[in-house]
Specification:
Layout (H helix, E strand, L loop, with lengths): L5 E10 L7 E4 L2 E4 L7 E3 L1 H16 L4 E8 L1 H11 L6 E6 L8 H13 L9 E6 L10 H8 L5 E10 L5 E6 L5 E6 L4 E5 L11 H16 L2 E2 L29 H13 L1
Parallel strand pairs: 1-5, 1-7, 5-6, 6-12, 7-11, 8-11
Antiparallel strand pairs: 1-4, 2-3, 8-9, 9-10
Length: about 270
């Protein structure tokens, strides 16, 4: 039987995907219009990483899950009301921006500081989970940079499955080109896994887990570490919605080469 693990799940909150988002220039840089009023959810990729952490913790009795989340703590509290019922975890909140206008290196730096400060952190048992992509910070680099800051060189991105072995090693199923998967064998922790969507269903609600979690979540939110990443870094000259453009022309009996040539000229023009 594999030994216990320390699983740290990194994630942020994002506006509900059904909302219409409009960027605007705020007093402290780019922001979303009426951002404070938008209903929020845990980032879908981080959401799946949390599912996977809960599933893995069941296979390694005694494992502990810590959720490290950077977001405005008032909005984070609302999201936790739902998340808390899914699995037992400890929250390490960072009171910072949740928009997609912060550089991934700055986000990774804030996450790394919190992870290093976790009480009883054992690097030999540490697995760092997070989203391979993000609904707000979709650079696909945050987890990689975080791993480097923590000194973890075993990193897997685009992960769909992890198979834990009795000796503590595990197989990782990673997405590669052409709709295929690569299977890698890792000797054990520490490792960083950036999750794709996998195949696990959403865990059912567990009111008992929710009540247990909220007893720790509320005090943690009150003591959330403030952060203002990127305030002295990148400057945005303008933020706006992508412009829509549609030009339609109906033609008949035109050779494919001619159509391709016209499309190329239109794109480059």
């Amino acid at each position: 039987m594999a030994g216990s693990l320390q699983i740290v799940v990194c994630g942020g909150i994002v506006p509900n995907p059904l909302q219409t988002l409009e960027p605007t220039a705020g007093p402290q840089g780019p922001a979303l219009k009426n951002e404070a009023m938008l209903p929020a959810v845990l980032d879908p990729w981080a959401w799946h990483a949390l599912f996977e952490a809960a599933n893995l913790a069941k296979q390694a009795p005694g494992s502990k899950i810590t959720l490290v989340c950077m977001a405005p703590k008032a909005k984070l509290q609302q999201v936790m009301m739902t998340i808390a019922q899914k699995t037992v975890f400890e929250l390490q909140p960072i009171d910072g921006p949740a928009s997609g206008f912060v550089e991934s290196a700055d986000v990774a730096g804030e996450l790394a500081e919190v992870i290093k400060g976790i009480n009883g952190l054992d690097m030999q048992k540490l697995l760092v989970f997070g989203g391979w992509e993000s609904a707000s910070r979709g650079a696909g680099t945050t987890m990689q940079i975080l791993g480097e800051m923590l000194g973890i060189t075993d990193q897997f991105q685009g992960v769909d499955e992890i198979r834990l072995k009795d000796d503590g090693s595990f197989d990782v199923l990673e997405r590669i080109e052409g709709g295929k998967h690569q299977v890698s064998r890792c000797a054990g922790a520490p490792a960083v896994l950036g999750w794709a969507t996998g195949n696990l269903p959403e865990p059912p609600n567990n009111p008992q887990a929710g009540m247990a979690n909220m007893r720790g979540i509320m005090p943690a939110l009150q003591k959330a570490r403030p952060a203002k990443p990127g305030q002295d870094g990148v400057k945005f000259l303008d933020v706006s919605l992508p412009s829509q453009r549609r030009e339609t022309r109906v033609v008949k009996d035109t050779p494919a080469e001619e159509i391709a040539r016209e499309l190329a000229e239109w794109i480059t023009g």
